[in-house]
Design a protein that fits this description.
two-stranded antiparallel sheet; 61 residues
Length: 61
């Protein structure tokens, strides 16, 4: 079940860094992105909201 916050859905994607390591990135979107899959909120994170734009983001607790 994908995590949703005020109409925004949380997606995750694996990216390869220059060092060769892979890292999971999380982002919110209202539409289906070109890459990434819906995912649950990772443990240890809370949702914040940008006061100016209203865009949600994840922050560590």
């Amino acid at each position: 079940m994908a995590f949703e916050y005020k109409g925004w859905k949380l997606y995750c994607r694996e990216v390869k860094l220059r060092s060769g390591r892979t890292q999971t990135i999380y982002f919110f979107s209202k539409r289906e992105p070109k890459s990434g899959e819906p995912c649950d909120k990772p443990p240890g994170y809370t949702v914040g909201e940008n006061k100016r734009t209203g865009l949600p983001y994840l922050k560590k607790e």
